[in-house]
Amino acid sequence: MLGWLAACTPPLLSLIYLVWQERNLRNWQRATRVTTAASPVAHLPTVAVIVPFRNEADHLPLLLQDLLSQDYPTDRYEVILVDDHSEDGALAGAGPLPANVRVLRLADHPEVLTGKAYKKAALQLGISATTAEVIVTTDADCRCPPGWLATIGGRFSDGADVVLGPVMIAPATDFCSAFQALDLLAYQLFTAATVAAGTPALANGANFAFRRATFRAVGGYAGVDHLPSGDDVLLLHKISAHGGWSVEAVTDRQALATTRPVPGWRALWRQRLRWAGKASHYGSAALNQAQALAFATSLGILGGLIVGIWQPAVALGALLAWGIKAGIDRRLLGAVCTRYGQETLLRWYPAAQLLYPFYLVAVGSAALLGFRSSWKGRRA
Which residue ranges does UniProt annotate as crossing the membrane (predicted)? Predict the structure, then answer.
């Protein structure tokens, strides 16, 4: 009896996972049917693009070039670069800065840094230095197409208070970077799906926008300002919990920000462990349930394979569960890859699916056990 129970548990978990992912796919498809119409210039909000950076000399000039090439009225947006104690002369290659670009240095404002949340302090400094209606955040290693700001700004013209933009890894030239790209694309689908379902759960600071008035109304980062990460997800959860604000996800290609992959598996482990370390502070039931189900499904597969060494029926159940999970994951990733013209990434999918349960269980277990990682020389 116990043997059959053990054999049936992994497939049952995968079937629950299948139903959940089918619902996410339907909501994602709803989100993609919403497009951004061009707004008259007079209706576009004033925007401040805030870029916190630390030791990004190789990337910041390229991002700045993109930001200065936006199809957005130059008198309606500014760029605020916030230097978080860089040591590499990050702005040396940027050349003379135009009038709508400002540089602030976190070291000159120690009053905004109350703990080890350096990025939040940098963002807070940038937000406090502008009177723009809308704040857009991105990372220094990102690239943005010319229509990026106009697409995001158009959603605010239509009445949005928060806009969640898509983020993609590029370039993806080997298995490690392709694994990251597929993983992040799955996050983009879930982000838009939860917004369409009315339960916004995820945000990415590389492409995150909100009204300055909304930020002030919820108290900014107060309450999560002691945590080194979470300037995006935790702020979104605060806004959602407050209620009364319109959150939208934009899935248009012209709103897509691309970010570089981290260099290698060790760096990926540290990054994902840092992300997982804030999970206990999430204020979204949808996100907590998603994480629990994904972890349980992968753990059921791996546990079934281990038990299956002695009980072959359990191993067969685990393989069936893996097949169910692989099938629905492929369907979802196919949809989002097609949306963003990244179909070539799917050639890496079989290998990524083989690795994923091990990766997810390892990162989740390490986070639950209290392991922490560092970022740019700082302990998370």
Answer: 354-371
Residue 104 binned pLDDT confidence (cut-offs 50, 70, 90): very high
10 Å CB burial of residue 110 (0-12, 13-18, 19+) is exposed
**Alpha-carbon Rg of the chain, whole angstroms?**
21
Residues 209 and 318 in one domain: no
pLDDT exceeds 80 at position 18: yes
Shared domain for 236 and 359, answered yes or no, is no
Last residue of a domain, one of 275, 297, 331: 275
Which two three-digit tokens encode residue 126?
């940038």
Cα–Cα distances (Å) from 207 to 117, 140, 241, 277, 310, in that order, read: 19, 11, 21, 21, 49
Mean pLDDT for the chain? 92
The whole model's pTM is what? Answer: 0.93
Range of the domain at 265: 33-275
β-strands 47-53, 134-137 pairing: parallel
Rounded to whole angstroms, how far apart are CA atoms 144 and 137? 12
Phi and psi angles of residue 211, each rounded to the nearest 5 degrees, phi first = -70, 140
pLDDT by residue (tens digit) across 167-184? 999 999 999 999 999 999
- Please say which residue of 220, 244, 275 terminates a domain: 275
The reply to whether 72 and 199 lie within a common domain is: yes
Token representation of residue 51:
């870029």
**Cα(333)–Cα(344) distance, integer angstroms:** 12
Query: CA-CA distance, 79 to 63, in Å (whole number)?
Result: 11
The set of residues, in sequence order, having a beta carbon less than 8 Å from that of 242 and lying 6+ positions away, is 217, 218
Identify which of 192, 140, 249 has the alpha carbon closest to the alpha carbon of residue 25.
Answer: 192
Return the pLDDT at 378: 54
Cα-based torsion angle of the residue sequence 150, 152, 156, 160 in order, rounded to the nearest 10 degrees? 160
What's the confidence (pLDDT) of residue 375? 61
Assign residue 370 a region: left if phi > 0, alpha if psi is -120 to 50, beta otherwise?
A: left
pLDDT band at 57 (very low <50, low <70, confident <90, very high): confident
Higher local confidence (pLDDT), 7 or 163: 163
d(CA 234, CA 236): 5
Query: Cα 313 to chain center, whole Å?
Result: 39
* Average pLDDT value for residue range 275-296: 90
